[in-house]
Structure prediction request, 151 residues.
Amino acid sequence: MRAGEADHTVDAVRCRVHPPAGRRPQRREQERGSTALEVAVLAPVVMLLVFAIVSGGMWLHGRSIALAAANQAVVAARGEGADSGTGQQAARSFLDRAGDGVLSGVTVSVDRDPGTVTATITASTISLLPGVPGLRVQQTAQGPVEQVTDS
Prediction:
């Protein structure tokens, strides 16, 4: 064993010795219980952050589903001989398959004029907290009406 190793071991042992009686308590002894207090303060903050991230993800997912439903409505309503009811039916069918359990309070609006079809889906995402309403989602898609021309 080398002399440096022995000194190092002795120093490690000396660090563990308690201070003699009558000395002022060291900083570690004064902070006793501070870890529990830190956890009690930080745990709600961390939980709130997790809820916010999950709610944001649900909102983005809900927006994606609403936009896809609006696109389905435009595709269905822009064909020759189709009307706005065809687009609404296509959007509802898509939402029944893809949006079940993600969106609530869904309204589908399809307007078809001679040149353009516009579909708007409005809904709320589901809420993670009881009594707190979900986030509002509104997506709109637009496209030209198909017209058959004689060649």
